[in-house]
Write a structure and sequence with these properties.
The chain has 14 helices and 2 strands. The chain is mainly α and about 300 residues long. The protein has a domain of about 190 residues: MetI-like fold, CATH 1.10.3720.10. It is a multi-pass membrane protein.
Amino acid sequence: MSAVAEPRQRGRGGGRLSTRDKVTVSLMMGIPTLVAASLVWLPAIASVVLSFFDWDGFGPLSEAEPVGLRWYEEAVTIYPAFWPAVQHNLIWLAAMFFVATPIGLLCAVLIDREASGTKLYQTSLYLPVVLSMALIGFVWQLMFSRDQGLINAVLGTSIDWYGDSRYNLWAALIATSWRHVGYVMLLYLAGLKGVDPALKEAAGIDGASEIKTFFHVTFPVMFPINVVVLVITFIDSLRAFDLVWVINRGRNGLELLATEVTRNIVGEAQRIGFGSALATIMLGMSSVFILIYLRIVMREEAR
């Protein structure tokens, strides 16, 4: 048997791997699984378990008292910040999905046409993506400052955009949209580069306009990118935290579920069980979209 045929024969039978190959495969599968389990699954399971106990985080865990569904009931009935936080998360999601994401898609389409100055626009829009949300909050402070901000100087007003509860949520949404637009633009730009030009040419020969070609040919072809953008937008909206925490620690009109979880777990109250219940609610909400995403991906792979 030739030297070329021998490896092919080994590849057909799973039991013919050498001991060294088995060790290598075991390490390649075992180490990532161990890291994911210790950093993701164990903390998530611990949060779910702690949500059914009363524990302040200082005493032994064995002294924690079981409380059943008490924290969940208090969260939806008497905790004053819960429903405003849910409402603000939904507004955050709607703004990212219906405003920032279409703007990012439009920017990607315009840049994909490779007009003059394309690289400059692409770099300018992508620049906020490499900045942390905390730094973006400080950058937009220069725009929203009541006394020295650019917006008040242009409008001739003296509005405290970050401090007034009537405006601070919308100011935070503008700041985070600045970053989200660049991120979505980059994803869709990669998707547009992968669309077969022959499809557009065929639609043009059939007499379709550029708008019809985009919505009936290009946009459906980018279905995997659309799903990724949808999931990223939902998860980013649900875990929004650092920007509002920098502004006013998630108070006075900027309550979000993530800030309430942090306030109860590491704040002065040290209500580990109650904060874990809020985190479990967030986990359940995000799991819905994750399951939808996995179902779509598995369906596409089965075709």
